[in-house]
Amino acid sequence: MTDAIRREAPADGRRVILFGAFDRHNFGDLLLARCAAAGRSGECVFAGLVARDLRDSGGFRTVPLATVIEAYGADEVDFVHVGGEVLTTTAWEAAVMLQRPEDVRRLLAAHDRSGTARDDWAAACLGTARRIPYVVAQDDLPRTWRTHFRGIGGVAFEALRAADRHSVLRALKGATTLGVRDRATFEALRRAGFDADLAPDPAAETRQLLGDLIRQRARQGEVASLQGSMQSWMAVQLAAEWGDDATLDGVAQLLLAEAVARGTGIVLFRAGLAPWHDDLETLRRLADRLETRVSVELFESAHVLDICALLAGARAYAGTSLHGWIVAHAFGVPARCLVRGPADKAACYLDTWCSVPRQWRTTGESAPLFPRTVSG
Predict the structure, then answer these.
(1) In the 8-state DSSP scheme, what is residue 9?
(2) Residue ranges, CATH 3.40.50.2000, the chain
(3) pTM reported for the whole predicted model
(4) Separation between Cα atoms, residue 218 and residue 307, nearest integer Å
(5) Residue pLDDT, tens place only, 298-308
(6) What CATH topology corresponds to 208-362?
(7) Is the dihedral of CA 309, 314, 316, 320 positive or negative?
(8) CB–CB of 6/74 below 8 Å?
(9) Whole-number pLDDT of residue 5
(10) How far apart are the first and last CA of the chain?
């Protein structure tokens, strides 16, 4: 395996290894990997917790971290933690999200009642004892490697158990660079003694980095078909956890009002196929509440560039996906994030970078579209 991934050393002498949660299907994580790679001149290695090939979905072929260390341990390396809410993703959460969706119910029944059982299973599944597995300390890597954290989030950092906070802070202490994407994470780390850089999520540069690829993608496949069948649309996404009847009823009312006001149809899409993300059944139930009033279509593709093209061509966006909002915003599309409360990672991000009143989220227009918290 190591021979298969071994590549010639880059011209400047330092290899770049990108490490993150792009070993599972989530729009934001796969997009962050694409943006990180597009922003660099040389070839990158993509490391994850497990070996996966998500190139059919617009992602990359990831190699387990242990294999990457074996292959490049003697090289000079910049090891980059690539964004996302990595400071608070536990081993249990990461391991479940790496499973097949049809296996999750059985795994939860077997392990969810005992914290010890969860930890033991997750460690065996991931091949690491790290409780926060997408955070790696420089001391645990070869001496010739430097660690970097770019655009990371951790809004629930201070709610972690003490041992987990300590392991994260140990990793951050040895980092060459440390950048966070929201003020809640920034302030939590400041209280812990760290002076991090605060900058927007790297996906905010999607238009500059991937604009040409996205425009090419829009001329084919489902997006091209939509342009022929639906003159304008509002792109809508909803996480599976929002799938109870009361919440769907409330969201449907908001979507209908906006679609009618704008004269658009509604296109429902998934921003993640991994467990605990999105599912088609939730979208179908939402569609049942909408299609008697407006034209509704289910967007089947989960390819990163297709989702970007759908958002870039939309009249508006609404959804629970933070990166749906970020991409829509990057293309100047009016966008709303649906959040449960002020501690939601999307709420914290928007509070950091938007100057509009807290109870509304708006992009490129003065009239509010969605309340930041949908009851139900």
Answers:
(1) P
(2) 208-362
(3) 0.91
(4) 10
(5) 999 999 999 99
(6) Rossmann fold (3.40.50)
(7) negative
(8) no
(9) 59
(10) 49
